[in-house]
Predict the structure.
Amino acid sequence: MSSNDTTTTPDNTPPGTPPKDPAETSAALSGLLRVLGAIERAGNKLPHPFWLFAILSALLAVVSWGLAAADVSADNPADGKTVAVRSLISVEGVRSMITDAITNYATFPPLGTILVVMLGVAVADKSGMLTAMLRAGVSRVPARWMTFALAFTSMVAHIASDAAYVVLVPLGGLAFRAVGRSPVLGIVVAFVGVSAGYDASPLITPMDAVLSGLTTAAAHTVDPGYTVTPLANYFFSLASSVVLAAVITLVTEKVSARQVAALPPEAEEGEADAGTDPVALDLRPEERRGLRRSGLVFLLFLAAIVVAMIPTGSPLRGEGGSIVESPVLSGIAVVLGLLFALLGTVYGRAAGTVRGGRDIPDFMAQGMREMAPILVLFFAISQFLAYFKWTGVGQVLAIRGADLLKDLGVTGPVAFLGIVVVCTVINLAMTSGSAMWALVSPVFVPMLMLLDVPPEATQAIYRIADSCTNAITPMSAYFVMALGFLQRYRRSAGIGTLASLTLPLSLAMLVTWTLLFYAWWALGIPLGPGAPVR
């Protein structure tokens, strides 16, 4: 993206020529820009994810026909049965594709979960509660704690899904400017926290529902009764959010702050478009009242659940008085949907954004309309995964892959590193986390299950690879959006400026997060309630 600066630069270059940024003229950054440019050009040639999965389904049909003709099969070590590849290009295959299409979509594991959760999240969002909560996270924070506060608030912001970018990135610039620091630095911190830390949060997010559903579908290749809940990675995600916020703070203060300070001065910095920021930093009295009341209701809600689960015969407990297998955890989507709807309603009544009972279903309807692109994509993904399972290609590939890894002496920890590398590279071009997991989980999850690695662990390592490079790839629409916010304070900023500022943070987060997982694995700490790491 070219610069739009038209001022005379410090080295007296003619007007209309962008100032020469030392960071952008370095050999290292030039190489990075060439790589990012190649990724952008290659990524632009990829079809929309809907058509990508349609094309993959067609390729799967051809591959299944060839493998079935060659009588390719494998012995499943889980039950000793022989799995033979079946062809989609057959009478039985064609009938299955037509008659099972609706069932494939309706029973797609992530579909119901994400819809129920988003009904509640929509109320919390449209009432203004989520935005107010994020603003409260960085308002009136002392300057010395601002970086960590903004980074950690970015982790909390993942509850708002992609809306977190729209709210928190410009808010980061405002927050840093309010404490006398460069708004450019604030934008970078917020953008990296939301994007590179996308799959880490101290709260359960809609992405947890999507990933767990896809992991469940992939695990059914080996064990049809296996279920991965949205809480499967909660303990790891909670710890990750704190660790990553600390990493962002350390690298920002030691590296990024110096990078920003070294940028050539511009008269506009801190002043450009100062009055047009989409969100204000301070909360209005009614917003604070709404947050106080919704916070109180949140505590009462949790207390009510805990008290109700105390009796061993409680209906909220599972068989034999189990808490791990209780309806609360197995039906966490319903609990979360109800909780967010309740909190959003309480906040809205106090803040004046909910005036009557009709507003609640209206908010839910608005949230469902925003879900339309995902629902369309889910149709294509659900058909592809159903074909993958029906043909047996995924199961045979997983068994053969697991056998190969065993023959090579590759263990789980070594395979984890391979997944991180492969998915990190793919993520540079395919920035949709759900689409990429739908593509690779049918192979990775069952293959590692045959190596005695729980699906929850494979999902956790994937979350790392799916997140960290989001902050450096120009294929992400939010990278371009963040650049736009950056240019409000620094008009000469280009792709190289933002990439040079986010790269050290992205790499530090990738390395630290991966090491955290290995430490988690070594210590055998559960990834979530009822979700062992090994």
